[in-house]
Amino acid sequence: xxxxxxxxxxxxxxxxxxLAIVQRLAADGARxxxxxIDEAAGATAVKESANIxxxxxxxxxxxxxxxxxNLLAKTIDAFGSVNALVNNAGIVxxxxxxxLEEADxxxxxxxxxxxxxxxxxxxxxxxxxxxxxGEEPGSIVNMSSINDTFAIAxxxxxxxxxxxxxxxxxVMALSLATHGIRVNAxxxxxxxxxxxxxxxxxxxxxxxxLSRTPLGRIGEPAEIAAVTAxxxxxxxxxxxxxxxxxxxxxxxxxxxxxVKE
Length: 261
Prior knowledge:
261 residues; SDR family oxidoreductase; Sc_DH/Rdtase_CS
C-alpha cells in the first residue's frame, strides 16, 4: 500500500487527524503539502515530520478560492504535480438551533463543505490535465463523519456540513469517474484528538462514548490515517463514491452496550 512518487495535499493538516494523515502518507512514500491557517502549528508539524518524509507547509484559508489556487500553484512549484487530495479542514460551532447565528452557520459550511468543493474542483482540473499528458489518475478523500447521518442538536452547521459532504463525495465520484479519478470519504466516530482527550477523562463522558461503541474503546487518529492512505492507494482501485465509517461499530448500533468500569 505504498504511495511512492505521489504528491498529496492535506487541508487542515497541521494538527489532530490531519497531522496523523500527513505523517502516514509521508511514511508511505508520498510528498505532502500541509494546508492550514495555523502557521505556528504548521511549522511544528513540518519539524515533527522531518524524519518521516518530505513534508511542507503553506498557509491557506481553503474556504477562499484565491487561497486554494495559490495552494495548488505552490504545491506544483514544490513537487511538480498533485496526485492526491485529502479534504480534512473542519471546524465546529456549538449552539442551540434557536440561538444559532447566520454568520456562524455560514462560517462552518464554508470551511467544512465549500472548501472541499473548491479544493476538489481545482485539484481535479489539474489531475485531468495531467491525465491528458499521460499521467495516472489521482484520488481524492473527503473527511466526513458519522454525523453525516447522525445529528447532534447543538451542532447544527457541523451536522449539515457533513451530510452535504457525503453527497458531494458521491457527485464528485460520478462526475470524475470517466477520467479514472476516484473520490471517497472517511467517516470517523469518536477519535482521541486533543479536543476529545480534554473531556474523555471525565467518567460520564467516557461512559457515554463507550456505551455506543461496540469495540469498547475510543479510536486513534492513526487509525483514520490508515483508512485514508488505503483509499488513496492502488489497493482501493475499484472503490469510488463510498464513505468508509471508522467508528468502532457505532453506525449499525441501535442500542447501548454495557461499559466495563
